[in-house]
Write a structure and sequence with these properties.
single chain, mainly alpha, Four Helix Bundle (Hemerythrin (Met), subunit A), globular
Length: 180
C-alpha cells in the first residue's frame, strides 16, 4: 500500500507539473481522467481490470503484452472468485510470472535503444516486482500461502499503477522517438 501511495503521489506530481503552460483546471482534469478510468467499481463484463486509454502507452508491442497480462490476471481472478482448484490457480499464476520477464525485456530493450533517462529506475521497479512474484510463487508451491483476493489485489494494483504511471511516461517518450 505504501508503494501505491508513493506511486500515486509521484504520478499526480508529474501530471500536475509536467506542462506549466496548462491552466490549473486542465491539469486537474488530466489527473482525474486516468484515476476515474481505473476504478474499483464492478464493470459489465465482470472483469477485474478493463483495458482502457488510461492503460494505453502508445506503443503497440507493449500494449499487446499489457493486454495479455491483464487477460491473465482477469482469468486468475475468475478462478479465485469461482473457488477453483489450487492447481488451476497455481498454473495461471505460473503463466503470469512466465510472461513478465519477456515483457520487461521488451520494455527495457526499447528504453536502451532510445537512451531513456529513467531506464535504471524502471529496471529496479521490474526487478522488485519480479522478486515479489517469485517469492509469492515459492510460497504457493511450498503450501505456505494460497492464491486469494489479497494476491489478486496485489497483482491488479501493481499492474494498473505501473502501467498508468511509469509505463505511460515511458510510452510517451518512446512515441516521441518514433516508436509506435
Amino acid at each position: 500500500m505504501k508503494y501505491f501511495r508513493l506511486s500515486l503521489i509521484l504520478f499526480v506530481f508529474i501530471l500536475f507539473f509536467a506542462n506549466c503552460s496548462k491552466s490549473p483546471e486542465q491539469k486537474i482534469e488530466e489527473i482525474q481522467k486516468p484515476l476515474q478510468t481505473i476504478s474499483e467499481a464492478p464493470n459489465p463484463n465482470g472483469q477485474l481490470i478493463v483495458w482502457s486509454e488510461a492503460l494505453n502507452v502508445g506503443v503497440a508491442v507493449i500494449n499487446t503484452q499489457h493486454k495479455n497480462i491483464v487477460s491473465l490476471v482477469n482469468q486468475l481472478n475468475n478462478l479465485v472468485k469461482e473457488n477453483k482448484s489450487a492447481d488451476a490457480k497455481e498454473n495461471m499464476l505460473d503463466k503470469i510470472i512466465a510472461d513478465v520477464p519477456e515483457h520487461f525485456a521488451t520494455e527495457e530493450k526499447l528504453m536502451k535503444q532510445t537512451s531513456y533517462s529513467k531506464l535504471l529506475d524502471n529496471q529496479q521497479l521490474h526487478s522488485d516486482f519480479t522478486q515479489k512474484c517469485v517469492e509469492l510463487q515459492l510460497k504457493v508451491k511450498a503450501g505456505k500461502t494460497e492464491i486469494n483476493t489479497e494476491v489478486i489485489t496485489f497483482l491488479k494494483d501493481w499492474l494498473t499503477n505501473h502501467v498508468s504511471g511509469p509505463d505511460k511516461e515511458m510510452g510517451t517518450y518512446l512515441v516521441s522517438k518514433g516508436i509506435k
